[in-house]
């Protein structure tokens, strides 16, 4: 539970800037047995016999899944813990000179906490500059009682374009437009906003009884076009530089960033999106906590850039130092608080009782830093509940201190964790009017009237809300996967949509992947099998004719733990091999998989690796034949997208982003050359077997079909090209014009 401590000004402390290989190859077809040394390396016990497992059954995993779901509603919301760090090598990219903050900004004093009650800023933009989302919001703003408008506010209220500084009333929010979901037709070129009309997105895919289910988002990779067709094109335009949207200054506020602070897909997304936005000529800066567990070997030129940041906290202020450094070319600011709370020196990123307070503090610090340093971005993009308070702080505090320019895009990567907490959050962060924030239209949790919900606040206050696939946007709003936020999403549906994540093909590309012993692509697809051999050597599994089925991911109930376990035994039964790489912050789940590992230790066709290992994950994507993603729910999923790039066939459950990106070889409505995997619907053993069984049969019985499927998957373009343009469209849609 969250402590009721008083946090006052703290002393400044000095900045704390700091910073398996294979044994001999197995004879083909002969199961390999691990030597003593190998066992020591891999953590396998000397006696391969399974431990007593009688008390650890799949049912217990299922129970754990259920209880986890219940826990997620607890007031002290806890996110999964990072188990260890990735191991990417340092980038060679030459960075620019580190940014320093101009001296004049440091003259601003941290008295903003006192200024919060000041009257609203009266700076207005002409109605002609309004964007559609804001026009809709403003109409409702006028009726809300607690806006406390000044005289000038009242004069301009009807025509103002201010962002939704107060929430939209449920009854008022009659749909003027339908929810927007972002989809791309194959090889669609970016549409200039002027040409596209007021809405930033091309299609409305709101599911209804009359209309068919949403068209999944995908980017088709066409088969090689005929030469004549290519010649007929006037001049192929490089996608990165063509955009009718003026370049923007974008700030990403995030708890994770690959590869320096990665727990899951969020880290990859922030890095990949920021890269793409920069490539398209925008200026992107990323703000994240200065964790002690950062991969400092991936940060270039780390230096102190601002050492006088005082962040309001519990009526006092905590002193922070801000560091600047490049992460593979991206400009990053790392905030280090000097406080007895020791917010970010915990050895891992998540998993503490005070996680909500840790990230509320970080978000307040990030906003304070933006204000103090005089940064004036067009867009603040925040991610998940950890940074969901950014728009609340902006529109309830910093707007009145002069930050009237930025608009906020909020991306929800996982609805399951929402940052639900108690009233002390308001006291700590300086949001001083409990009766105002404990309101259904603002931060009050939809279930518990005595709790605040940070993610809900992010939805209410942001100018645009996205989740990471169109299908999941619909599932969260209409199909009960919003973990209680469904009514809030309905109220705010006019500013809500889904964008399928991209994959950073500079990192995830078998042609250049630094972790692969053998590079391969469509032209030399057979070299994939050299990686398969390398994977077997490394994991000491048998080198035989069998297909390798793999799972890479967090061992979270969300990922379908019962089905993963079943798939292991089913695969072995069907003459396949199984490789699992994953970890869980939940001790019960972890120990279950450790038991499974011991049980299967002597099986030459199976390897279970528990832990986080970026390097090994690359070899698995390259060496496996089939990638399993049997999730209960999956907002987007990166593993299936990465796998496809490596010619590894995804077997997935038809849910969220998996449904938007994987098309069944036998049953999809897509033309044959656009089918790229196997899909099952029902979350049960027979559902799983139906898809995995077909994949294994195809591998054995129709190898040429399987190969075609691999090529189809590899041809797909899941890069950041299209999602990058989607986000730019959204930014342009909401930015102050
Ligand atoms: P989520 O965000 O729910 O964790 P995603 O599929 O969106 O799932 O992203 C998972 C990312 O984390 C992928 O890049 C995957 O390779 C990586 N990953 C997950 N678990 C591990 C692990 N144990 N070791 C290495 N990489 C992992």
TrEMBL record:
Entry's EC annotation: 2.4.1.21
Keyword Glycosyltransferase found: yes
Catalytic activity: [(1->4)-alpha-D-glucosyl](n) + ADP-alpha-D-glucose = [(1->4)-alpha-D-glucosyl](n+1) + ADP + H(+)
Compositional bias ranges of the Basic and acidic residues kind: 33-50, 105-114
Bias-annotated ranges (Polar residues): 115-129
Residues that, per the record, bind ADP-alpha-D-glucose: 262
One GO MF term: alpha-1,4-glucan glucosyltransferase (ADP-glucose donor) activity
Domain Starch synthase catalytic: 250-489
Domain Glycosyl transferase family positions: 543-708
Record carries keyword DNA repair: no
InterPro entries named among the record's database cross-references: Glyco_trans_1 (IPR001296), GS/SS (IPR011835), Starch_synth_cat_dom (IPR013534)
Record's keyword terms, sorted: Glycogen biosynthesis, Glycosyltransferase, Transferase
Gene3D superfamilies from the UniProt entry: Glycogen Phosphorylase B
Ranges of Low complexity composition bias in the record: 61-72
Residues covered by region (Disordered): 1-219
Record pathway: Glycan biosynthesis; glycogen biosynthesis
Protein family (similarity comment): Belongs to the glycosyltransferase 1 family. Bacterial/plant glycogen synthase subfamily.
Functional description taken from the UniProt entry: Synthesizes alpha-1,4-glucan chains using ADP-glucose.
HAMAP family, alphabetized: Glycogen_synth
Cross-referenced NCBIfam families: glgA, PRK00654.2-4
Protein's name according to its UniProt entry: Glycogen synthase
Organism whose genome encodes this protein: Methylocaldum szegediense
Gene: glgA
């Amino acid at each position: 539970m969250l402590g009721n401590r008083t946090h006052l000004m703290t002393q400044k402390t000095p900045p704390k800037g700091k910073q398996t290989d294979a044994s001999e190859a197995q004879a083909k077809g002969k199961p390999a047995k691990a030597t003593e040394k190998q066992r020591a390396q891999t953590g396998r016990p000397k006696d391969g016999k399974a431990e007593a497992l009688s008390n650890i059954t799949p049912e217990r995993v299922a129970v754990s899944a259920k209880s986890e779901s219940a826990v997620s509603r607890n007031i002290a919301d806890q996110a999964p813990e990072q188990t260890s760090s990735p191991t990417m090598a340092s980038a060679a990219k030459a960075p620019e000179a580190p940014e320093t903050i101009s001296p004049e900004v440091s003259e601003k004093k941290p008295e903003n906490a006192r200024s919060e009650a000041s009257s609203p800023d009266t700076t207005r933009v002409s109605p002609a500059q309004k964007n559609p989302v804001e026009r809709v919001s403003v109409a409702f703003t006028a009726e809300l009682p607690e806006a406390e408008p000044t005289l000038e506010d009242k004069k301009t209220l009807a025509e103002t374009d201010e962002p939704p500084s107060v929430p939209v009333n449920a009854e008022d929010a009659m749909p003027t437009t339908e929810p927007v979901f972002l989809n791309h037709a194959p090889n669609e070129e970016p549409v200039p906003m002027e040409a596209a009309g007021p809405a930033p997105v091309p299609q409305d895919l709101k599911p209804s009884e009359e209309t068919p289910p949403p068209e999944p988002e995908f980017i088709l990779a066409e088969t090689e076009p005929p030469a004549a067709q290519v010649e007929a094109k006037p001049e192929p335009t490089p996608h990165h530089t063509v955009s009718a949207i003026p370049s923007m200054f974008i700030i990403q506020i995030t708890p994770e960033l690959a590869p320096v602070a990665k727990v899951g897909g969020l880290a990859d997304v922030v890095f990949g999106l920021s890269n793409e936005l920069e490539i398209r000529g925008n200026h992107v800066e990323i703000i994240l906590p200065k964790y002690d567990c950062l991969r400092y070997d991936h940060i270039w030129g780390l230096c102190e850039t601002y050492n006088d940041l005082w962040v309001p906290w519990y009526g006092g202020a905590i002193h922070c130092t801000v560091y600047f450094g490049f992460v593979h070319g991206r400009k990053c600011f790392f905030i280090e608080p000097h406080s007895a709370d020791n917010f970010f020196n915990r050895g891992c990123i998540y998993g503490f009782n005070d996680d909500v307070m840790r990230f509320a503090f970080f978000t307040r610090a990030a906003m304070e830093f933006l204000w103090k340093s005089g940064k004036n971005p067009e867009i603040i993009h925040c991610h998940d509940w950890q940074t969901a308070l950014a728009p609340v702080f902006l529109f309830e505090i910093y707007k009145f201190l002069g930050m009237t320019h930025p608009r906020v895009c909020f991306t929800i990567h996982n609805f399951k964790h929402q940052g639900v907490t108690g009233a002390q959050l308001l006291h700590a962060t300086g949001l001083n009017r409990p009766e105002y924030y404990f309101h259904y239209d603002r931060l009050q949790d939809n279930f518990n009237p005595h709790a605040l919900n940070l993610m809900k606040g992010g939805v209410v206050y942001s100018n645009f809300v996205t989740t990471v696939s169109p299908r999941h946007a619909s599932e969260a709003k209409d199909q009960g996967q919003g973990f209680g936020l469904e009514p809030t999403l309905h109220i705010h549906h006019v500013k809500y949509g889904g964008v399928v994540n991209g994959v950073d093909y500079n990192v995830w590309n078998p042609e250049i992947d630094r972790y692969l012993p053998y590079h391969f692509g469509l032209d030399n697809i057979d070299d994939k099998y050299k990686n398969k051999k390398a994977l077997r050597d490394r994991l000491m599994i048998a080198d035989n004719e069998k297909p390798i089925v793999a799972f890479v991911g967090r061992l979270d109930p969300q990922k379908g733990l019962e089905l993963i376990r079943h798939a292991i035994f089913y695969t072995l039964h069907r003459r396949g091999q199984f490789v699992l790489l994953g970890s869980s912050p939940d001790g019960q789940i972890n120990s279950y998989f450790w038991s499974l590992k011991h049980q299967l230790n002597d099986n030459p066709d199976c390897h279970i690796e528990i832990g986080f290992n970026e390097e090994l994950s690359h070899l698995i994507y390259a060496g496996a034949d089939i990638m399993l993603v049997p999730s209960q729910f999956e907002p987007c999923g990166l593993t299936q997208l990465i796998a496809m790039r490596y010619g590894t066939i995804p077997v997935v459950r038809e849910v969220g982003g998996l449904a938007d990106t994987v098309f069944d070889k036998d049953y999809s409505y897509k033309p044959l050359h656009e089918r790229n995997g196997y899909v099952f619907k029902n979350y049960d053993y027979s559902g799983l077997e139906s898809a995995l069984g077909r994949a294994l049969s195809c591998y054995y019985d129709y190898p040429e079909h399987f190969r075609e499927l691999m090529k189809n998957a590899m041809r797909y373009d899941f890069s950041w090209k299209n999602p990058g343009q989607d986000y730019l469209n959204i930014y342009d849609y909401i930015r102050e014009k």
